[in-house]
Design brief:
Length: about 1000
C-alpha cells in the first residue's frame, strides 16, 4: 500500500507510464498546426529563389545577372562573391585548409549547389528572374565513387584534402593482431551501404531579418538546433552569438534529422536580408529538398572477424570509408564517429582494430538522418554475424546468443569505450523468440519451401545509443590535437518550470518537437511531481535563443528527449516543488518533509485535512514575496541544467563513451520472395525493445512504427542515385520510391524495461532503433531465402534478378549502350508531311520556320548556313525553364537527310545529343520524315524522373513534326505571308 494512503493522505496518481491522449493531435488533425509557412511575416518581406548548379563539378567561368536584376519585382541578385563578402566560411568538420560556403564560390561541387540567389517581391517573380541568369561553366571530371575518389588520378575537390581524403585515422583496442594471427577461423564481408534520406512532409524554411542599428540577425527557421550550430552560424554571419537570435515555429512537419541541414541556408538567407535591408523568406520546394538537402552518408565497409569453431567472435577488424559528399560541413564526420564507442554492438568482444577514412565526392553534403550512423554500422556487423552462422552451419540465434554481453555484466565497458548502462540481452532474446512465435515462423518457412516458394528468416541484435556525448566527434582528432584544442565532452539539457500569479504552471524546454509528443509527455512528468493533472500544465517547446535557457548541446537529436529533456524537466519541477513544500509547511504549521502534492492540493501527510489549494501556495511568490522565508527564495521559476558525469572526453587511447544510454533491440522477420517478380514481401516482423522506463507506451510504439516504416523504405525502395557524371537521378517520388501503408506491415512490438541508472527517469531513447536494425534484418532474411552471400540495398527486384539470373541481355539496337546509371533518352519515329522533300528541307534550314514549329521556342538565330542558336522554354513535369541551345547540321545529304548535333543549358540543367532526320518522297502524299535521336542530360532535369523525361521527349518531338506538317501545309496553300506577318509582329512585341 502507498505510504501516503496508509497515513490517510490521498494517493498521488502516476501519469508517467500512461497512454493519455496527445495534446498536440487536436490542432494537427484539424488543420490548425502552425508551421513556418503558415506564420505571418512583416510587411515588406521579400522572397528568395535559388539558382542551382546543373553540374556536379565545374568551374564557374562567368555569371551574367544583368537581365535578372532588371526583371520585374527583383530587388537583388547575389552570387558567390557577394555572399562571400558578407559572410565567413562555415566550419569544416576537421582541421584542414578548406573553405566551405553556403553558395558556390568559383567552383560548383555537386549538382544542386546554390550558384545565385534572387530576392524579389514574390517567389514567383524571383523564380522568373532565375531563368534570366546566364552562367558559363567549365566542366571538370566528377568524383562519384568514394573508393575511386582516393585514387591518385581522380579529380581533386579541395586542395586541402589530398586524394579527396579529409581524415584517415586508425585505432587498436586490446590485441587484435595477435587474436587474428591465432584465430581458428577468419570470416569477413565487404558491403556498401547506399545513400538514402528522410523526406519530411514539410521542407526547409527560413525567414531572416537584419537590424543594421543593432548589427544583429533575427532568424525564424524550422531548424532542430540550436546546439553547436548556433556558434557556427554566428561566426559565419560575422556577429557575436548574442547578435544572432534563432527562433523556431510552434510546429514542425517532421525532420528525422534532416532539418539540421537547413543551417547553410540560414546563413545564405540571412546574408540576403543584410544585403537588401529587408526581411527575406525562403521555403524549399520538394525538388530542391531531394536534390540538395542533406542525406545520410554512403559507406564502404570491409569487416573481418576472428571466430572460434563454435561461433564466438574474439576480434573485429573494421575498415570504413565514409562518403560525406562535396563539403565536410559540421557536424560531420559525426555520422562515422557517433557509433565508435559501440562498434561491437550488443556483443562481448574484447579486441578491435579500426581504420576510418572520410572522403569527399561530388554529391550532396551529408548530415543528420534518423539512425545517424547506426544503419551503416549494423548492416556490416549483423551481415557478418549472419555469414558466420551460415559458414559454421549454426542457427543464427545461437551465434547471436553466445556472443551477447552477459546479463550480469552491466554497466558494461566495451572495447572501444562505450559504457552500456543496463539491460538483460539474453532474456530479451529468449522472450522475443517465445512471444514472437519464432518456432511457428520456422515451420512456415519449411512449408513454403516445400511448396516451391522462396522464404527466409533474418535476425539482428543491436544496441541503440541515445544522448550523444559531444566529445565523440573529437575522436577524429589525435590525442595530441585534442590536448591542443581543449577537452570537449558531455551532454547538457535545460528545462524551465514557471508559475504565474494565479498559480498556473508552464514548462519551457530547449528541444524542438518533430512528432515526439513533447507537450504531452512533459505535462505528465510535471503533473506527477506537483500533484496536478496534465491538463493543468502548459508546455512551450518553441525555441528563442534570445530569451530561453539553452546550451550548446540543446536541440532535438540523438534520441535525447525522453532520457535528457524529460528527465531535466523532472529535476526542475522537483526543485520548484521543494521550495513550495517549505512555503506550504510554514502556512500549514508543519514540516516540509510532511508536505505532499496530490489532487491539486498541497497537504500534510499526517493530517490530510490540513491542506491548501496548490494555486494559492504556488502564487504566493507573486502576491506576497515578503512573506516567504529567507531560505526559500522565489518560487516563480526554476531552470535546471543537467549534465551526466558518465560522458567524458576521449582518453589518450581513444576510448570514448559515445552516448549516455543504450537500449537493446532484437528483431527477426520472415520474408517471402515472389518467384516470378522477385519482389520481397514481409510476412511477419517481430521487434523486441528495451528502452528503459517507458513514459508513454502508445507514443513509444508510435516511434517504433515510424522508425520501422522508414527502415522498410531503406531496405526495399529508397536510394539516392547518381549518374556517372554526378547528375542526381532521384529528384521526384517517381524515382525516389517511398513505402506507403500498403507496403508497411504491422510489426509485433514487444517490450522489456531495464531502467537506466544514468538518467533521471530511467528512460532511454527509442526513436531511431529500427532504422538501425530493420534494414539488415530484412537483408539477412532475403539472403537466407535466396541462399546468397551478398545482398545490396535497396533490395529491388531488378537487383535481385541480376544476382540470381545474371545481367539482363541488352536488347538488339544500333544505338550505343547506356552506361549503368546514366540518364540517356533515345527514340525514333515517323511523320507524314504534305510537301516535297525539297520544301521540307528548306523549312528545316529556315530560322523563321523553326521558331514557329519548335515547341516552346522563343527565337532562333542563324549563325551560319549550318549553325543555329535557339532560346526555348521547356516544361517537364513539375518544372520549367529557359534553355539556350546551339544546333549544328552535319552529314547533309540534300534533300534526303541531315544529322543534327547540339548542346543546351539552362536553369533546369544541361544536355547534349544528336539526331538523324531522313526525308523520303511518298507518291501522292508528300514526304515521309523519319527521325532517330539520342541525348544525354544532366543537372536538375535529370532529377525529375525517367518516366517523365521519356514521355516529355516523345511529346516534344511529336509536337515538332506535327507543327512542321501544319506549317508546310499552310505554306503550300499560300497562307504563309499573313501568318508570318502576324508571327513576326508577335515575336517582335514579345522581345
Amino acid at each position: 500500500m502507498d505510504a501516503n494512503a496508509a497515513a490517510g493522505a490521498p494517493a498521488a496518481r502516476s501519469w508517467i507510464g500512461q497512454s493519455i491522449p496527445r495534446v498536440e493531435d487536436k490542432a494537427l488533425l484539424s488543420g490548425r498546426g502552425r508551421f513556418i509557412d503558415d506564420l505571418g511575416v512583416r510587411p515588406g518581406t521579400l522572397h528568395a529563389a535559388i539558382l542551382r548548379s546543373p553540374h556536379a563539378h565545374a568551374n564557374i567561368v562567368s555569371t551574367d545577372v544583368d537581365a535578372a536584376k532588371l526583371a520585374r519585382g527583383v530587388i537583388a541578385v547575389l552570387t558567390g562573391q557577394d555572399i562571400k563578402a558578407l559572410t565567413a566560411s562555415l566550419v569544416v568538420g576537421v582541421k584542414a585548409p578548406v573553405e566551405c560556403w553556403p553558395i558556390a564560390v568559383g567552383r560548383v561541387r555537386y549538382a544542386g549547389e546554390p550558384v545565385a540567389v534572387v530576392v524579389a517581391e514574390s517567389r514567383y517573380l524571383a523564380e522568373d528572374a532565375i531563368d534570366l541568369i546566364e552562367v558559363e561553366y567549365e566542366a571538370l571530371p566528377p568524383v562519384i565513387d568514394p573508393i575511386r575518389a582516393m585514387d591518385a588520378d581522380s579529380a581533386l575537390l579541395h586542395d586541402g584534402f589530398p586524394n579527396n581524403i579529409a581524415s584517415d585515422r586508425s585505432f587498436k583496442y586490446g590485441e587484435p593482431d595477435q587474436i587474428f594471427a591465432e584465430a581458428e577461423r577468419i570470416i569477413g564481408i565487404s558491403i556498401r551501404y547506399p545513400r538514402n534520406s528522410c523526406t519530411p512532409i514539410e521542407t526547409y524554411g527560413v525567414v531572416a531579418e537584419y537590424d543594421p542599428g543593432e548589427q544583429a540577425f533575427d532568424v525564424l527557421a524550422n531548424f532542430q538546433g540550436p546546439f553547436s550550430i548556433h556558434a557556427v552560424l554566428s561566426r559565419a554571419l560575422k556577429v557575436p552569438g548574442n547578435r544572432l537570435r534563432l527562433r523556431t515555429p510552434p510546429d514542425s512537419g517532421g525532420s528525422f534529422g534532416v532539418k539540421q541541414g537547413v543551417f547553410p541556408y540560414i546563413a545564405l538567407i540571412a546574408a540576403a536580408a543584410r544585403a537588401t535591408g529587408r526581411p527575406v523568406k525562403w521555403i524549399e520546394d520538394r525538388l530542391e529538398h531531394l536534390t540538395a538537402s542533406v542525406s545520410a552518408t554512403n559507406r564502404a565497409t570491409t569487416l573481418r572477424a576472428a571466430v572460434t569453431d563454435d561461433g564466438r567472435i574474439l576480434a573485429l577488424d573494421w575498415d570504413q570509408v565514409e562518403d560525406c559528399g562535396a563539403h565536410l560541413r559540421a557536424p560531420e564526420p559525426a555520422t562515422l564517429y557517433r557509433m565508435h564507442g559501440n562498434l561491437t554492438g550488443a556483443y562481448d568482444i574484447a579486441h578491435v582494430a579500426v581504420r576510418n577514412r572520410v572522403v569527399v565526392t561530388n554529391k550532396t553534403p551529408t548530415g543528420l538522418n534518423r539512425g545517424f550512423g547506426g544503419p551503416q554500422v549494423y548492416f556490416a556487423l549483423e551481415r557478418l554475424v549472419h555469414r558466420i552462422a551460415v559458414e559454421l552451419k549454426r542457427d543464427p540465434v545461437d551465434v547471436i546468443s553466445c556472443n551477447l554481453v552477459p546479463a550480469g555484466a552491466f554497466p558494461y565497458r566495451t572495447a572501444t569505450g562505450a559504457l552500456l548502462d543496463s539491460g538483460d540481452y539474453p532474456t530479451a532474446v529468449a522472450r522475443a523468440v517465445s512471444e514472437g512465435g519464432l518456432a511457428e515462423l520456422k515451420a512456415r518457412r519449411e512449408k513454403v519451401r516445400a511448396e516451391g516458394g522462396i522464404y527466409g528468416i533474418g535476425y539482428t541484435a543491436v544496441v541503440e545509443p541515445s544522448v550523444s556525448n559531444m566529445g565523440y566527434i573529437t575522436t577524429v582528432m589525435t590525442p595530441a590535437e585534442r590536448r591542443k584544442a581543449g577537452p570537449k565532452s558531455g551532454a547538457q539539457a535545460t528545462a524551465t518550470v514557471s508559475i504565474d500569479p494565479v498559480g498556473s504552471v508552464s514548462v519551457q524546454v530547449a528541444s524542438i518537437p518533430q512528432g515526439q509528443g513533447h507537450r504531452t509527455v512533459l505535462a505528465q512528468v510535471v503533473a506527477d511531481v506537483l500533484g496536478l493533472t496534465p491538463t493543468d500544465i502548459r508546455v512551450n517547446a518553441e525555441i528563442d535563443t534570445a530569451k530561453d535557457a539553452w546550451s550548446i548541446a540543446s536541440g532535438n537529436y540523438a534520441s535525447r528527449f525522453a532520457p535528457a529533456v524529460a528527465g531535466t524537466t523532472k529535476i526542475a519541477a522537483e526543485r520548484l516543488a521543494g521550495k513550495l513544500a517549505r512555503v506550504a509547511a510554514a502556512g500549514l504549521n508543519t514540516e516540509s518533509d510532511d508536505i505532499v502534492f496530490a489532487g491539486g492540493f498541497v497537504l500534510s501527510k499526517r493530517n490530510p485535512d490540513n491542506k491548501a489549494p496548490f494555486s494559492r501556495i504556488a502564487a504566493l511568490s507573486h502576491w506576497s514575496p515578503g512573506a516567504l522565508a529567507d531560505d526559500v527564495g522565489q518560487t516563480i521559476r526554476e531552470t535546471a541544467f543537467w549534465t551526466p558525469p558518465e560522458l567524458s572526453p576521449p582518453d589518450d587511447h581513444d576510448h570514448i563513451n559515445s552516448s549516455l544510454c543504450y537500449g537493446f533491440i532484437f528483431d527477426f522477420c520472415g520474408i517471402e520472395v515472389d518467384r516470378v517478380t522477385l519482389q520481397p514481401r514481409i510476412d511477419r516482423y517481430v521487434t523486441m525493445h528495451d528502452c528503459g522506463t517507458i513514459l508513454h507506451p502508445a507514443m513509444v510504439d508510435g516511434q517504433v512504427r515510424g522508425g520501422f516504416a522508414q527502415a522498410v523504405g531503406a531496405a526495399l525502395y529508397e536510394e539516392y542515385a547518381y549518374a556517372p557524371d554526378g547528375s542526381f537521378l532521384a529528384g521526384t517520388f517517381a524515382d525516389y520510391l517511398l513505402p506507403t501503408v500498403a507496403e508497411v506491415p504491422e510489426p509485433l512490438i514487444l517490450h522489456m524495461q531495464s531502467a537506466s541508472p544514468f538518467t533521471p527517469l530511467g528512460s532511454k531513447g527509442v526513436g531511431e532503433g529500427n532504422c538501425m536494425s530493420t534494414p539488415v534484418c530484412i537483408a539477412n532474411a532475403v539472403a537466407d531465402a535466396l541462399g546468397i552471400a551478398d545482398v545490396e540495398l535497396p533490395l529491388v527486384p531488378a537487383r535481385l534478378a541480376e544476382v540470381l539470373r545474371g545481367a539482363e541481355a541488352a536488347a538488339p539496337s544500333s544505338r550505343s549502350a547506356t552506361r549503368p546509371g546514366e540518364r540517356k533518352l533515345t527514340g525514333e519515329g515517323s511523320a507524314m508531311v504534305a510537301a516535297t522533300p525539297q520544301q521540307v528541307w528548306s523549312m528545316l534550314l529556315d530560322p523563321t520556320t523553326l521558331s514557329a514549329v519548335i515547341p516552346g521556342c522563343n527565337a532562333v538565330k542563324k549563325i551560319s548556313d549550318t549553325d543555329f542558336m535557339a532560346d526555348v522554354t521547356v516544361r517537364v513535369g513539375p518544372v520549367k525553364s529557359n534553355y539556350r541551345a546551339r544546333v549544328t547540321l552535319i552529314d547533309l545529304d540534300h534533300p534526303s537527310g541531315v544529322t543534327l548535333i547540339g548542346t543546351a543549358d539552362g536553369a533546369l540543367g544541361f544536355g547534349a545529343g544528336k539526331g538523324r532526320i531522313t526525308l523520303a518522297p511518298v507518291a501522292g502524299e508528300g514526304t515521309s520524315v523519319h527521325y532517330r535521336y539520342e541525348a544525354e542530360i544532366g543537372g536538375k532535369i535529370a532529377s525529375i524522373g525517367g518516366r517523365l523525361l521519356d514521355g516529355a521527349a516523345r511529346v516534344i518531338i511529336g509536337q515538332f513534326f506535327t507543327a512542321l506538317a501544319r506549317q508546310t501545309a499552310r505554306s503550300a496553300t499560300g497562307g504563309d505571308r499573313s501568318i508570318w506577318t502576324k508571327l513576326r509582329g508577335w515575336l517582335g512585341g514579345r522581345r
